[in-house]
Amino acid sequence: MRWNLAYRTLFHDRGKLIAGLVGVIFSVVLVNIQGGLFFGLIHKASMLVDRSNADLWIGHRGMHNVDFAHPIPERWRYVVAGVEGVDEVQPLRVEFGEMSLPGGGFENVVLVGIPETTDLGRAYSIVDGPENALDLHDAIIVDRCDSEKLVGPDIGELREVNGRRVRVAGKSNGILSFLVTPYIFTDYENAIELAGSDPSETSYLLASVAPGADRDAICREIKRLLPDVEAMTADEYASVSINFWMTRTGLGLSFGAATMLGLLVGLVMVGQTLYAMVLDRISEYATLRAIGLSERELLSILAFQSALVASIGIAIGMVITVILKTLLSTPRATIEIPLMLYVGCGVLIFAICLFAAGLPYLRVRRIDPHTALQS
């Protein structure tokens, strides 16, 4: 009886119900999209690491960002290869360079040199061109999303990097640097030649480990054998690279503040909408008290109605969020919504709805039932 009354009271005035639902839906979409843009942006800082196919990253002591590498002796790969549990070790070069453009201009690029015989460090997938593009002489791979910066290089087109001739042999899609400089993938030896760097040095050593091996223990052993290097798991180095941009620039503060502001606005909207919706029915609740409903029963009706509005609004909001994410997310403006954001947003908005609907209850308690019946 009580739940039927709560249901009928809620759906009797559909205009107020829709207003409440719109507030909840808008808040769910706002919080998830804003948060998804934030996560999509910061994950560009670790894209090379996330897609490297490597379990461990070994670099100079104090390494803090994948794009800013400091050279280490390449021969140390043999020391790492001798550590128990290490399956494969390969060098990776990350160097800054300059590409010539057709109009006579230049564009700064990040050269990523990968050995031919391994998938370690091969963060791209060819979407245009032959699969073995890097096997060709002087070959480089550029990303489709950087076509505007690089003035639309075509497959087979000749360019110059640091004054040396290269040939665009393939294109990837969506491998973008957090910096404004495009990634250019090439063969490891070619990267040394283009950068004019010391062939006895490398930027990183990437390692894969045997199944079941303790990665943290391997990292500790590598650091014991090579005190001048840093060894991290791929997940750990990805977090370090993201943290670099979050803490050493104003990005974390500014974008994080904007995201929190969006969350706050959304929650305030939800609270205000639900609060107003209950206040609009305050005379009805006072009447229910006058005809004999206890305070506990009245409070349970308010909680049921708020929970119903919140559940319907959150469900619709999630569906709209997924649709918008599918339609609007691009490699340049990636909307990346982790499961924890969906769950956290839903739980938080649900709690706010219950809280906002409970506040008018304090007012309902102060209304004289006899006055409500006479009005």
Automatic annotation (TrEMBL):
Question: Does this UniProt record's set of keywords contain Transmembrane helix?
Answer: yes
Q: Which UniProt keywords apply?
A: Cell membrane, Membrane, Transmembrane, Transmembrane helix, Transport
Q: How does it sit in the membrane?
A: Multi-pass membrane protein
Residues forming coiled coils: none
Q: Provide the protein's localization.
A: Cell membrane
Q: Where are the transmembrane segments?
A: 17-42, 251-278, 298-327, 339-362
- CC per GO annotation: plasma membrane
> What InterPro entries is this protein classified in?
ABC-4/HrtB_transporter, ABC3_permease_C
Q: For this UniProt entry, what is the primary localization, expressed as one broad class?
A: membrane
Q: Where is the ABC3 transporter permease C-terminal domain?
A: 260-369
Question: What is this protein's name?
Answer: FtsX-like permease family protein
